[in-house]
Amino acid sequence: MKAVVTAGNGGFEKLHCREVKRPRPGAGEVLLRVLAAGMNNTEINTRVGWYSDSVTRATSDTATSEVREAEVRIDGGWNDTTPFPFIQGTDCCGRVAEIGPGGNPELLGKRVLVRSCIRPEGFESMENLWMGSDFDGAFAQYVKVPQAEVFALECDWSDAELATIPCAYGTAENMIQRSGITSGERVLITGASGGVGSAALQLVKWRRAEVIAVAASSKKQQMLEIGADRVIGRDQDLLGNLEEKSVDVVIDL
């Protein structure tokens, strides 16, 4: 199969389109034919080694700087060491092509999304494995994933639209779940125009809570269109624009 293989820390020169062996699903796994794959900051951060303790610059600065071969960061991946060379791709919409031994045959042929943040010790534990960072992801024609992490879909969204969901919306939903947001509460979301921020805005509104969005003033109309009740420009005095004890929850992005 064809795949984009990340050879090591660095710029675009580390991405190589190659023919690689098609994976075979084992027990508890399924093989997906990739229909669409999303691109996230996670892909860039892993490639440039931004998660390393040695990095002190912003993601945008690191992503645009060159990483010399001698600067390969052994702790630069999501869980320290990145398994170079490997296939990135955190977000995946796919169709089940094969099922491993003992798997659910009803999944065969289904269009699915993959939960990209896998918690092998359960959701009470913070231990996790990240698809496309800790193991091969969706920048390929096929990807092998745990059967427990795929969810069949029946909707009119396109493959590309669905592939925007797992990382951004999953991250936002996790924050909302942990904060326990309920109907009627007032929620302040910083960085509301970004991928996770706009996902959080929509998911909070779905819970019938009120949203104050902090974003660039040029994006005010966009924020209102996706549901914000009020928008404060990020160049404005935030405290000066808020009444005392006027916010129940802050989602700080």
Shape: globular
**Cα distance, first to last residue?**
38 Å
Question: What oligomeric state do the depicted chains represent?
Answer: single chain
Task: Give the CATH class of the largest domain.
Answer: Alpha Beta
Q: How many individual domains? A: 2
- Physical arrangement of strands within the biggest beta sheet: 9-3-5-6-10
Question: What do you see in this structure?
Answer:
- With 253 residues, the protein is an alpha+beta fold.
- It folds into two domains: 2-162, Medium-chain alcohol dehydrogenases, catalytic domain (Quinone Oxidoreductase, Chain A, domain 1); 167-251, Rossmann fold (3-Layer(aba) Sandwich).
- The chain is 20% helix and 25% strand.
- It contains six helices and 14 strands.
- The protein has a five-stranded antiparallel β-sheet.
- Helix 5 links the parallel strand 11 (186-189) and strand 12 (210-215).
- Helix 4 crosses helix 5 (195-206).
- The longest helix is centred in the C-terminal third of the chain and has 14 residues, at 166-179.
- The relative contact order is 0.14.
- The mean pLDDT is 90.
Give short descriptive properties of this protein.
Quinone Oxidoreductase, Chain A, domain 1, 253 residues, 6 helices, 4-stranded parallel sheet, single chain, alpha+beta, 5-stranded antiparallel sheet, 2 domains, 25% strand, Rossmann fold
